[in-house]
Amino acid sequence: MMSLTAYASGDVAGAVTSTWNTARSQIVSVVNNVVFPCLDVILAVLLF
User: How many domains, in total, are found in the chain?
Assistant: First the structure.
């Protein structure tokens, strides 16, 4: 097997943190607008 080692230059931790902070707001939005309403519907169907 051949493998290629990649070396990153610059502030990798800063880039990852910045990307996560941007994605976090989108994840929260999806969970609030999609996941919770779906769970509400499922629970309503099962309980009533």
Answer: 1
